[in-house]
Amino acid sequence: MKYGDKVSTVDHLTELRKRLILSLVFFIVSFIVSLLWSADIYKFLTSNFNNKLIVLGPNDILWIYLTLAGLCAFTFSIPFICYQIWAFIKPALEEKEARALLAYIPAVFICFSVGLAFGFFLVTPAILNVLLSIGDDLFNTQLTAQNYLSFVINTTIPIAILFEFPVIVAFLTSLGILTPNFLTKNRRYAYFILIVIAVVITPADFISDIVMSIPLILIYEISIIISKYIYNKRGEK
């Protein structure tokens, strides 16, 4: 379908079905490929952890492989799924609007990937070291592979999602829905919400909350800068 084409309800449903099937097929293929590399992915994710991880049974091994494959498949599918969403709504957009929206797809994938990397390489080790050091003199800690990976996933995924905030701000600013003035005026409330989020997604200790809060606040400030740039650029046109 082309820009501005008028389509019936049946055409809409047919197009939606097509996009859903394509997205599902891409995810399944990505899942299968990731599953073949699950052992290597596991070695990479546990390479920075010095302690020996244990498994309690074959079900744990299966859970680990399927979870890692699903996470990788989801990450790789993000740009493809975003493109399918764009292709579905494209007929309702002007050509200029469609091209502008298409430009955000790489940014969504990049921000999510950067968020994953930031969470895995910086935030997760910092939080884990703090938690393990707390009971180092009292307990002989043995982590299962499932517990460790669950901890990594529960820490990195929320961070990766929060790293999408600049993209959302840029998109809403480009549409005229959001202004940098609004973000600046509500900075204190935003900080409070971000700190609450940091407390919720991290263990209940002060250091972990600080480690998580600082990057979230930086993301918000970067979003304000991006919003100002786009807002001023729109004003020049």
From TrEMBL:
GO terms for cellular component: TAT protein transport complex. The chain crosses the membrane at residues 20-42, 62-89, 101-128, 148-177, 189-207, 213-231. It comes from the Bacteria. InterPro entries: TatC. It is found in: Cell membrane; Membrane. GO terms for molecular function: proton motive force dependent protein transmembrane transporter activity. It is a multi-pass membrane protein. GO terms for biological process: intracellular protein transmembrane transport; protein transport by the Tat complex. Keywords: Cell membrane, Membrane, Protein transport, Translocation, Transmembrane, Transmembrane helix, Transport. Belongs to the TatC family. Part of the twin-arginine translocation (Tat) system that transports large folded proteins containing a characteristic twin-arginine motif in their signal peptide across membranes. NCBIfam families: tatC (TIGR00945). Forms a complex with TatA. This is Sec-independent protein translocase protein TatC. It comes from Gemella haemolysans ATCC 10379.
